[in-house]
Design a protein that fits this description.
The chain is mostly helical. Helices cover 61% and strands 9% of the residues.
């Protein structure tokens, strides 16, 4: 794991995202993925509150809707 991912996870934790979820999100941002799909409603809500998030955190239904466009 690199320093950027660790620091980003700490910042996301400050936003109220649980540490393991913050780490997953930081890794997704580092990998420059388009979407991070989750069934965790709390994580989904918190991630959508982050102002400078670099990946779209979506529910499975949102992902399906996006893919079908």
């Amino acid at each position: 794991m690199n320093t950027w991912v660790e620091e980003r996870a700490r910042v996301l934790d400050i936003w109220g995202i649980k540490p393991l979820d913050a780490l997953h999100l930081a890794c997704a941002e580092s990998a420059q993925v388009d979407y991070l799909c989750t069934c965790d409603d709390q994580f989904l809500r918190r991630a959508k509150e982050v102002a400078d998030i670099r990946v779209r955190v979506v529910s499975p239904l949102e992902l399906i809707e996006e893919i079908e466009r």
